[in-house]
């Protein structure tokens, strides 16, 4: 079958994202052929495009999509043609009008969730789910710190953590983003460019610090984040939008109060199908309840993925962004 997809033949800037005609094979025994209705844009796509996270060339980027099943392989029993499904997993290849996917990596989209919402929520929403419910299980009365609070994952974490009964401190880069984070459940937005977020966290917590920091920024915030933690606190480094965290002496973790450090990935947390399905069901439930709103603040044509990448890297986006085939 002939279709179109974004292809990368060499890593580099947004200009390497090329719209090309491609062939899609019929699904193998355990695969499903999906016609995409919407494709999610995520910062990890930039890491793949730039070569920070290497992938064999040439390739189609993207880890998140939603659409309709067109055909199923001979061994697939859980899905049938016409089912609405979504995913946020390898293999790469979501930036395409149609593709095949392993059936065990798909989840069914509930009727209350639109295709665009599903494409916008799976990777970021499932990330928020494991961060808040599994990596450090947030409890009523906790005070947490989330960096990039106005970003896609950040806005979801703010809403969900507040729903769980936590007090949310979040760092943002502008007054507009502070207002956005506050409107989504962040009790204390901090303008990290002009304010000392360590001092602010200490003041908000009466000098105690927080039990957990969720940090997707990386190099610019990592060491200061350790100073925000209370003894035995957990540093969750789940991204690096400002660059890779530089090597450091792990003795710092002892000196700052026997801290825990983890570098989790969604792929590890959803490796078992039972965990994937349970996480998605919990996500769909809080969205269905209205406790967490999925806001798609930008859409681009899939063929214009380069423009979407420029805006994401330029910090011009908020909330979720979706590419439309």
Automatic annotation (TrEMBL):
Domain named Enoyl reductase (ER): which ranges? 12-323
Classify the source by domain of life.
Bacteria
Keyword Transcription regulation appears in the UniProt entry: no
Q: Name one Pfam family in it.
A: ADH_zinc_N
GO molecular function per UniProt? mRNA 3'-UTR AU-rich region binding; NADPH binding; quinone reductase (NADPH) activity; zinc ion binding
Q: Spell out the SMART domains in the cross-references.
A: PKS_ER
| Name this protein carries in UniProt | Quinone oxidoreductase
Q: Name one GO cellular component term.
A: cytosol
Coiled-coil residues are none
CDD domains per the UniProt record, alphabetical: QOR2
Keyword terms of this UniProt record: NADP, Oxidoreductase
């Amino acid at each position: 079958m002939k279709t179109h997809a974004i292809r990368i033949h060499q890593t580099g800037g947004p200009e390497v994202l090329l719209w090309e005609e491609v062939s899609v094979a019929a699904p193998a025994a355990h695969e499903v052929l999906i016609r995409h209705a919407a494709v999610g844009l995520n910062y990890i796509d930039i890491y793949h495009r730039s070569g920070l996270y290497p992938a064999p060339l040439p390739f189609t980027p993207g880890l998140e999509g939603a659409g309709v099943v067109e055909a199923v392989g001979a061994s697939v029993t859980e899905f049938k043609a016409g089912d609405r499904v979504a995913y946020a997993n390898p293999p790469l290849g979501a930036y395409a009008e149609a593709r095949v996917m392993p059936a065990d990596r798909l989840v069914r989209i509930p009727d209350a969730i639109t295709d665009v919402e599903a494409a916008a929520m799976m990777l970021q929403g499932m990330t928020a789910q494991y961060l808040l419910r599994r990596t450090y299980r947030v409890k009523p009365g906790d005070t947490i710190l989330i960096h990039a609070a106005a970003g896609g994952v950040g806005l979801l974490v703010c809403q969900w953590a507040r729903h769980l009964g936590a007090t949310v401190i979040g760092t943002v880069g502008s007054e507009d983003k502070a207002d956005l984070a506050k409107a989504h459940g962040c009790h204390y937005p901090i303008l990290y460019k002009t304010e000392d977020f360590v001092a602010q966290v200490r003041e908000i917590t009466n000098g105690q610090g927080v039990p957990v920091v969720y940090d997707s920024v990386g190099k610019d915030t990592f060491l200061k984040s350790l100073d925000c933690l209370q003894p035995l606190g957990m540093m969750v480094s789940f991204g690096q939008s400002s660059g890779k965290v530089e090597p450091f002496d792990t003795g710092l973790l002892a000196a700052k109060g026997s801290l825990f450090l983890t570098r989790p990935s969604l792929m590890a947390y959803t490796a078992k199908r039972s965990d994937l399905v349970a996480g998605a069901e919990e996500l769909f439930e809080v969205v269905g309840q209205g406790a967490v709103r999925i806001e798609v603040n930008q859409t681009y044509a899939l063929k214009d993925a380069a423009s979407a990448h420029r805006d994401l890297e330029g910090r011009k986006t908020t909330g979720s962004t979706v590419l439309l085939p």
